[in-house]
Write a structure and sequence with these properties.
Shape: globular
CATH superfamily: P-loop containing nucleotide triphosphate hydrolases
Strand content: 25-35%
Structural class: alpha/beta
Oligomer: single chain
Distance between the termini: 27 Å
Helix content: 25-40%
C-alpha cells in the first residue's frame, strides 16, 4: 500500500458570485514510503494548493461526480474532523515554508520546541527534543539567538529543525529554497536528503527550482491544476 495516495482531488475558489478559480482539476497521485518527491510547475499551476490538501490544512471539494479520496500512512483522512486533522498534523507531519515562519520574539530553540509542545509533550521534553533537532542541522551554538540574528540559510535550518522535532513520518516543504542563495540551497537539500536516506522519512517538496527537482528521487509535473507527468531526465 502506498504511503500517500490521492484520487480525484479538486479545489475551486469562488471569487464573487460568478468568478471561479479551478486550482485543482482531478489530481491522482501515489507516493511510496521513504520517497523524496518534488512537485514542480509554474506559478499558479495549483502545486501549493495541492500541498495544503496533502498537509490537511484544507480539504478537497466533495461536490464532484466521483468523490475525492486521500489516504496517508494507511489512514483515510478524507472524512476526518478538524480536531482529528489537527492531531495528525501535530503527531506525524512536519512543514517547511519559503518565508521560514519563525516567531521573531522567540529564540531558535524556543521556535524549534513549539511543535513538540503542541503535540502534548512536557516542556522539559520539548526543550530536549529541540536541542537534539538543532544538533541535526548544525545550529547548536545558535540555540539562544533570535531569528533576526540569523542569516536566511540559518533561519531555514531552524525551520527544518522545527519540522523535524517530533520526528514526523511525512515532511512537506513549500518552496523551501525560494529565499535562499545557491550555497544555502545546497546545504538545505543536503539536510533533506540526509533525513530521507538515514531516517527513511517521506518528503514532498513543492518547487519551481530545477536544482531542487534534481535532488529528489522523482518529479511530478503540474500544469493548470493537473499532474501532467514526469519530465525526462
Amino acid at each position: 500500500m502506498p504511503f500517500l495516495e490521492a484520487t480525484n482531488l479538486h479545489k475551486t475558489y469562488r471569487l464573487g458570485r460568478s468568478n471561479k478559480v479551478y486550482a485543482l482539476r482531478g489530481v491522482d497521485m501515489s507516493i511510496e514510503s521513504g520517497e523524496m518527491v518534488a512537485i514542480m510547475g509554474p506559478s499558479g499551476c495549483g502545486k501549493s494548493t495541492l500541498m495544503h490538501i496533502l498537509g490537511l490544512l484544507h480539504g478537497p471539494d466533495q461536490d464532484q461526480d466521483a468523490p475525492a479520496t486521500l489516504s496517508i500512512n494507511g489512514n483515510d483522512v478524507t472524512g476526518m474532523s478538524d480536531k482529528e486533522r489537527t492531531k495528525m498534523r501535530a503527531s506525524s507531519m512536519g512543514f517547511v515554508f519559503q518565508s521560514f515562519n519563525l516567531v521573531p520574539t522567540l529564540t531558535a530553540a524556543e521556535n524549534v520546541a513549539l511543535p513538540a509542545v503542541y503535540s502534548g509533550r512536557k516542556r522539559s521534553e520539548a526543550r530536549e527534543a529541540a536541542t537534539e533537532a538543532l544538533e541535526w542541522v548544525g545550529l547548536s551554538e545558535w540555540a539562544d539567538h533570535r531569528p533576526m540574528e540569523l542569516s536566511g540559510g540559518q533561519q531555514q535550518r531552524v525551520a527544518i529543525a522545527r519540522a523535524q522535532v517530533t520526528k514526523p513520518d511525512l515532511l512537506l516543504a513549500d518552496e523551501p529554497t525560494g529565499n535562499l542563495d545557491s550555497a544555502s540551497t545546497t546545504e538545505l537539500l543536503d539536510l533533506l536528503q540526509r533525513f530521507n536516506q538515514e531516517q527513511g522519512q517521506t518528503i514532498v517538496i513543492v518547487t519551481h527550482d530545477a536544482v531542487v527537482g534534481d535532488a529528489c528521487g522523482r518529479v511530478l509535473s503540474m500544469l493548470d491544476g493537473e499532474i501532467v507527468g514526469t519530465p525526462a531526465a
